[in-house]
Amino acid sequence: MSALDLRLRQVIIDALRLDEVRPEDISEATHFEDDLGANHDQLRRLFRQVDVQLMVRVPEEDRPRLTTFGLLRDYVKANTPARGGGQMP
Fold it and tell me: Which one of 13, 25, 53, 76 counts the least CB within 10 Å of its CB?
């Protein structure tokens, strides 16, 4: 599991307040609503935390298609600002 994968999984767990979920429980296909039970407010908090903690802003128009961990991870990777060799902070 890459550093980004682990960090994003932890952001998801914290933002959705999933105390019983461990990072390794979240797979590529884990759906935020269907598998994790996220509601609209929780998803808004998740995208806000992605912005704050990973410094990747997810515009409102992109959010509906980012429904799984894998889709969000790929979006974050594609939109992460370059930082000395592309490393996550």
Answer: 25
Per-residue pLDDT reduced to its tens digit, 20-53: 999 999 999 999 999 999 999 999 999 999 999 9
Query: What CATH number is given to the structural domain containing 39?
Result: 1.10.1200.10
Gyration radius from the chain CA atoms: 12
- This prediction has a pTM of 0.87
Domain that holds residue 52: 3-79
What is the number of structural domains in the chain?
1
